[in-house]
Amino acid sequence: MTVPEALFTGDARPYAGGDPYADYRTTDFAFAHLADLADRRLGAGVIAANDEFFADRENLLKPGAAEFDPERFGHKGKIMDGWETRRRRGSGADRPHPTDEDHDWALVRLGAPGVIRGIVVDTAHFRGNYPRAVSVEGTSLPGSPSPEELLDDGVKWTVLVPRTAIGGHAANGFAVDVEQRFTHLRVNQHPDGGIARLRVYGEVAPDPAWLGVLGTFDLVALENGGRVEDASDRFYSPATNTIQPGRSHKMDDGWETRRRRDKGNDWIRYRLVAQAEIRAVEIDTAYLKGNAAGWATVSVRDGETGAWTEILARTRLQPDTNHRFVLDAAVVATDVRLDIFPDGGISRLRVFGGLTGRGAAGLSARHGELGG
Q1: 73 alpha-carbon distance from chain centroid
Q2: What does the pLDDT look like over 267-316, one tens digit per residue?
């Protein structure tokens, strides 16, 4: 395994007033376009931590950037928007410092099991109280294991990020090249301190047995292994929002493009979880009222070299409305393309159907390769 290196190390300057993000250190990570497997919307959670004295462990997975109020204090001290543990101490006056093995930990249940391609340990606003180093391990267990079961000595943990020095007030990014399917992470900070956010980027690897039992399901849903391959425009919001679980609850929870000033149109291209027979499509414009797409078409292809075939002709869309279309006959496909005219947005796309024999066999083979 290639040893990943954090992009940022060393101290951060004390907060000097003004914009707290003015001196924040980050970059464009090559893996950040992938799905966040630790997204709360997928059902991720921080199910246990050995210490959360100053700030709650659940803050790690909150959406959006960490906030900072320099005047916000509580009875325990400064209130931080992240996970922060108390200061570790040694065993006595003659040994006041923690040992090299002392560390704090948190257990994270991924919202969707998958292959991890990159991890960001964000220490935003933790300037003098961030950990000296971090490490991350992963495991794959069936069902819904308890913290006690995850901490059992018999559980095998795989190192994803070896113990590595990080920087304060920075997005510390790590590329991961372990080709396995993981369900849970153990995040360690050495020896103590605070982390604002944790992002776990990768590819969803669903359980074929579960999808087989479902029969008909949403073939493009992120939680089922669907993904966005490309999009014409991501100006206001990411195209991946269109395959998130549930209905949109606000305007920026969908996909919205900038206003076009040419004669073109916007589009998203999706990859289904595997080859499947499509039987119905939903296009939802919830919370998009003055900026919903005017019209839409849906096309499919079977294989990367297959020809695109339109399965939904150009159809008028209504604002803030869920549109349902039943196909006259099932259509076999691996990819779907949604075109909107001329611009605007949709909140969700649902593509309902079932796997073909070839699709199910390929998904099962991949599941076995990943250790599932």
Answers
A1: 31
A2: 999 999 999 999 999 999 999 999 999 999 999 999 999 999 999 999 99
Q: Which two tokens stand for residue 72?
A: 């916000």
C-beta of residue 187 within 8 angstroms of C-beta of residue 105 = yes
pTM, two decimal places: 0.91
Q: Which two tokens stand for residue 271?
A: 């990859």
Q: For 51-97, what is each residue's pLDDT tens digit?
A: 999 999 999 999 999 999 988 899 888 989 999 999 999 999 999 99
